[in-house]
Write a structure and sequence with these properties.
- By secondary structure, the protein is mainly α.
- The protein has a single domain, classed as DhaL domain (Serine Threonine Protein Phosphatase 5, Tetratricopeptide repeat, Alpha Horseshoe).
- It contains nine helices and no strands.
């Protein structure tokens, strides 16, 4: 089975940054429906900080890359910083210091990330949050691991599941944040956090 090393994970984070930069306007517009309208800006700042930290430190393993990225992202503040910082840290810890990762390891890392988001955000699937995209992606990776799919195929499955999960938030009743106080404003629109997560998985699934 093909595996991914630290360089491949670092390259994936760079792709995530570029994709998030391209999606910033969309994410800000979605967030502005009931929030401050700055989710795209915050996500861009977070991924810039994460990539900068990784490129400066040059971690040698996939797990170390994610743990280093977590330190950078967590510093951006707001709700996204701690949420994604926790997700990346949990994912990195789940990988330990193995020199490369396969589909099963990817699934475990995604599950750890989803768990971190649930714990830090005190949220669950169906509440119109980032978890509604992250959890389906993790589940898709686990199914791919059980089929013994290659990482590239598994990541494509995860990207599709995250996109579908994000799109489905348009019909969910918000239960967290400002949107919960003005549900009519966001009805019919995807959650900004879930959409940012879909952008993450779409970029991660691209070929280097």
């Amino acid at each position: 089975m093909v595996t991914a090393d630290a360089a491949a994970v670092t390259a994936a984070l760079v792709r995530v940054l570029r994709a998030t930069e391209a999606a910033q306007g969309e994410l800000d517009r979605l967030d502005a429906l009931a929030g401050d309208g700055d989710h795209g800006v915050t996500m861009v700042l977070g991924w810039r900080a994460a990539v900068s930290a990784v490129e400066a430190a040059g971690p040698a393993t996939p797990g170390a890359v994610l743990r280093t990225a977590a330190e950078g992202f967590a510093g951006v503040g707001g709700t996204a910083g701690p949420l994604w910082g926790t997700a990346l840290l949990r994912a990195g810890r789940s990988l330990g210091d193995a020199p490369a990762l396969d589909t099963a390891a990817l699934a475990g890392a995604a599950e750890a990330a989803a768990g971190g988001m649930r714990d830090r955000g005190r949220c669950a699937e169906g509440e119109r949050t980032v978890v509604d995209a992250m959890a389906p992606a993790a589940a898709a990776l686990r199914r791919a691991a059980e089929r013994k799919s290659a990482p590239a195929e598994a990541l494509a499955d995860a990207a599709g599941a995250a996109a579908a999960g994000a799109a489905a938030t348009a019909s969910l009743e918000p239960r967290r944040g400002r949107a919960a106080r003005a549900p009519e404003r966001v009805r019919g629109h995807a959650d900004a956090g879930a959409r940012a997560c879909a952008v993450f998985w779409a970029a991660a699934a691209q070929c280097g």
